[in-house]
Design goal:
single chain; 4-stranded antiparallel sheet; 2 domains; 47% strand; 6-stranded mixed beta barrel; mainly beta; 2 helices
């Protein structure tokens, strides 16, 4: 699933894959021409998902230093069970919603059809603008009453229709950690917590 549609992939089995200090054996990976599906992937050889990164106990992205650091899991713990994604609950105008955390995304993308169904009187401020996010077509709005932590604020978000009914159940969109304007973000897989400064 790529935001709003299924895309064709092939699969390959790799005997061993290393990402920094993380070593995984017998890994099944997706194979796809990334540049066909994202303008951001023109010079990218691959995407490392949380399914692999979660083999660490924690990892931190330091945006100022442009580094990733890992705290490794105890060897005795064996393979760690993780769903492969991290979902962050937030509140919009009093409505609790759930956003998939995507470190490659730069903002907040909401499925407007799902949101309007549960929040028919959703309030926006100012003008809306049609924008292109690579192949995605969305509407950029200033949304009132967005509460991630602390008081509710007005936040710029992108709205687009979600995938077909039944795809990504329980998810209302995506949150790119960069939208938090954090200097550092820590993914704590043991506690299933996202922390930022």
């Amino acid at each position: 699933m790529n935001f709003d549609r299924h895309i064709p992939v092939e699969w390959a089995d790799i005997p061993e894959l290393r990402v920094g200090p993380i070593r995984a054996k017998a890994v099944r990976v997706m194979v796809i021409r990334l540049a066909e599906y994202s303008v951001l992937a023109e010079n990218v050889d691959g995407i490392i998902g949380l399914d692999l990164l979660s083999r660490s106990k924690k990892f931190t992205i330091d945006y100022e230093k442009r580094t990733l650091s890992f705290v490794l899991a105890d060897e005795a713990a064996g393979d760690r069970a993780f769903s492969g994604c991290l979902v962050l609950p937030i509140v919009i105008q009093g409505l609790p919603i759930h956003l998939l955390v995507d470190t490659g995304f730069q903002g907040i993308l909401l499925y407007k059809d799902r949101l309007r169904k549960r929040l028919p009187k959703m309030r926006t401020e100012g003008e809306s603008a049609k924008v292109a996010l690579g192949r995605l077509r969305a509407t950029q709005v200033k949304l009132a009453g967005v509460q991630i932590t602390g008081p509710a604020v007005v936040t710029t978000v992108w709205l687009m229709d979600g995938p077909d009914k039944g795809a990504l159940p329980g998810l209302d969109g995506y949150l790119g950690p960069a939208s938090l304007r954090a200097k550092r973000i820590e993914f704590d897989f043991d506690a299933r917590i996202l922390r930022w400064q």
